[in-house]
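STRUCTURE:
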């Protein structure tokens, strides 16, 4: 039984049917199908002082609480882990995670997910400021790569822009300059506008020598217009728009695949059939075992290529 039920009451009618779930601290009502996670979020968000103090084990020898500075330092480290490990902000609400942290250090008060979000945004702003300072001290030119990525979760489109360069110690480096939400038509002019705004923000417009993209018509327009603008604004600057070689190869292979002979078509159908049948897959594993061979999962060919922006 979750400890949230210490603070919530199930209101029932004369037929013992639950009508609502009410908070006993503020009388807020929730529906009968409300998950305990939601109830816990209400308690930690609205009644954190009462809820947290009543649900931490009593320790007679408990050490003094952390100062605000110490608490902030640990929270920053927590936010860094959440960011690098791609954890959701809601991880701080998981009961097992909270128990784990409390076991390690009972003095640390785990912040709510809203505070973690604010901390991550602050880290982003600080890192962005530091990056601008680092770029200003680099002597070399820069090359850019860009691509548009659409989230399968909420179907939001993003323009990712990555910078590649050689630092003052002659080490090849790369970093993600920005990940910009894109709304409306993904036109070449829109992409161009976003790129120019970013170059001006980082003050590197006169130091960009190339842009690498896929072969989309919008990217071709963007590359052509960006070259015209930079070369017109900065005398002597040579800028080139490069097409992503792997994407060109992918297009060539896709065109060739349209002329597959019947044997390859049959092989594709066979792989799909095996992958969609657990019984056939088990039989295939048995054949491998009989022949004393290491089992290798069949791979289905795909005609789409995914481009990944470096996370460095």
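SEQUENCE:
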């Amino acid at each position: 039984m979750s400890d949230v039920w210490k603070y919530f009451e199930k209101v029932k009618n004369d037929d013992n049917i639950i009508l609502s779930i009410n908070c006993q601290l503020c009388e807020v009502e929730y529906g009968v199908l409300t998950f305990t996670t939601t109830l816990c979020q209400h308690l930690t968000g609205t009644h954190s002082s009462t809820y947290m103090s009543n649900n931490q084990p009593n320790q007679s020898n408990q050490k003094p609480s952390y100062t605000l500075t110490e608490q902030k330092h640990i929270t920053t480290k927590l936010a860094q882990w959440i960011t690098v490990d791609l954890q959701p902000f809601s991880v701080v609400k998981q009961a097992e995670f909270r128990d784990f942290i409390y076991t390690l250090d009972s003095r640390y008060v785990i912040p709510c997910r809203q505070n973690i979000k604010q901390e991550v945004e602050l880290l982003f702003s600080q890192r962005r400021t530091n990056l601008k300072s680092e770029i200003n001290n680099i002597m070399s030119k820069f090359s850019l790569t860009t691509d548009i990525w659409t989230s399968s979760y909420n179907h939001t489109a993003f323009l990712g822009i990555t910078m590649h360069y050689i630092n003052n110690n002659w080490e090849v480096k790369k970093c993600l300059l920005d990940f910009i939400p894109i709304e409306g038509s993904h036109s070449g002019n829109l992409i161009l506008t976003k790129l120019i705004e970013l170059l001006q923000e980082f003050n590197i417009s006169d130091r960009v020598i190339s842009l690498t993209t896929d072969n989309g018509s919008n990217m071709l327009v963007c590359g052509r217009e960006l070259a015209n603008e930079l070369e017109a604004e900065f005398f002597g600057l040579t800028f080139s728009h490069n097409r992503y070689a792997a994407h060109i190869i992918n297009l060539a292979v896709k065109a060739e695949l349209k002329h597959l002979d019947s044997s390859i078509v049959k092989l594709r159908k066979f792989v799909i059939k095996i992958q969609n049948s657990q019984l056939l897959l088990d039989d295939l594993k048995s054949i491998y075992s009989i022949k004393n061979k290491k089992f290798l999962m069949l791979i289905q060919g795909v005609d789409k290529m995914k481009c990944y922006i470096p996370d460095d």
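REMARK: Residues 305-312 have pLDDT under 50 and may be disordered.
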